[in-house]
Amino acid sequence: MVAAFCATSGPAVNTWGCARAPRGEWVETLRSLRTNAGSRRVARRVRWCRAAAGATAAAGGESSAETAPAGAPRCGFVSFLGPSNTGKSTLMNALVGAKVAIVSPKVQTTRTRVTGIVVERSCNAQLVFLDTPGIFRAKRRLDRAMVRAAWQSGSGTDMVSLIFDGREFWQSAGKLNDTQQEIVEAVATRRANGQLKAHVSLTVNKIDLVPEPERDALVSRMREVVGGQQAVDEVFVVSALRGTGIDRMRRRLAELSPVGPWLYPEDDLSDMPQRLLAAEIVREQVFLQLRHELPYATAVETEEWTERPDGSVVILCTVLVTRDSQKGIVAGAKGSRIKSIGTQARLAMERLFDRKVHLYLHVKSRKWDENPAHFRSWGLEYDV
Ligand SMILES: Nc1nc2c(ncn2[C@@H]2O[C@H](COP(=O)(O)OP(=O)(O)OP(=O)(O)O)[C@@H](O)[C@H]2O)c(=O)[nH]1
């Protein structure tokens, strides 16, 4: 039994709040490139991109930055690492100036590595951000795969930024929680034994949720507990949601980027394939609209993508749950919820793809979480 719903095209609305209009060339580039290679492939991919572009500068940020001739182009890869729900995706969207990663108040929203690309003119630098799944104590197979992908994403990038929640740190009276502690210790160990050569920064996010008079003391305390463990080179204090500290952070990361040619066309915002972006947009709406009713193992895949002569596109996405009984939760009474998910997702797609979209949604039950092919399609490893 399949529940189906079609959201036909209406007037495009800016539900994404993009700071920069998406462009046709971007969509073309998205089609021709795939980012979500397995996590071990991140380092290889960075090297391959550099070799393909004829770059000569070595990764490692600061040293090459110091010796660079003024005005030389730079290109830096930055990966984010942090506990769930600390605002990594929101931060990447803020740095890129466009919505390329989905965001929800639910933990573990990000399942795969998402790339965001931006040019920082002041340094003639292109920055490529890798947003990763949050780190948490993983028991289930999908969770384990996500956490593994997050840990591995730092290998081979020029910079790693640990994203911690400032309010949480403030509420715990200046103590790191277990996950933060684990991350700091792992980074310090990897740096000490030479496994991690990247520049490491700590980003204290959600500073808007910390009362103003307390902020300086909080950041000093964070520097103390983290810097004292030889884990980080620099601290950024930001509110990704409000945009505070974002320009400064982007500029500094650009200054630290190695000298070398840009690896993507100037207007590119991401190199995720369109089909994957479409599925992510639907998944965001499923997360936002189901909230606490969301079945754990919900996934979305794009089954069809058909271009029409009038320039519009027909997209068929399937929302996958693992049990028949969960289909009704996603569909809602008389299909009202899936209809609303479809409407919001379509509007977001029209904004992002800059064209009319006819979106069809199906809800199916399938044991997708036991299928290695699904994991691979998201760049995750399947363990047995
Ligand atoms: N007040 C406030 N909220 C924020 C800020 N940054 C992110 N948030 C909120 O925090 C929640 C989680 O944000 P995400 O960007 O999805 O967090 P994430 O770290 O990518 O989450 P995972 O995918 O679970 O790892 C969302 O509700 C955001 O709106 C911030 O600077 N201030």
Outline:
Keywords: GTP-binding, Nucleotide-binding, RNA-binding. The chain is an alpha/beta fold and about 375 residues long.
Give your account of this protein's structure:
It is a single chain. By secondary structure, the chain is α/β, with parallel strands linked by helices. It folds into two domains: 3-18 and 273-377, GMP Synthetase, Chain A, domain 3, CATH 3.30.300.20; 34-256, Rossmann fold (3-Layer(aba) Sandwich), CATH 3.40.50.300. Helix content is 36%, strand content 19%. The protein has a six-stranded mixed β-sheet with strand order 3-4-2-5-6-7, sandwiched between helices. The radius of gyration is 21 Å and the shape is globular. The structure holds guanosine-5'-triphosphate. The site of guanosine-5'-triphosphate has 23 residues, from α4.
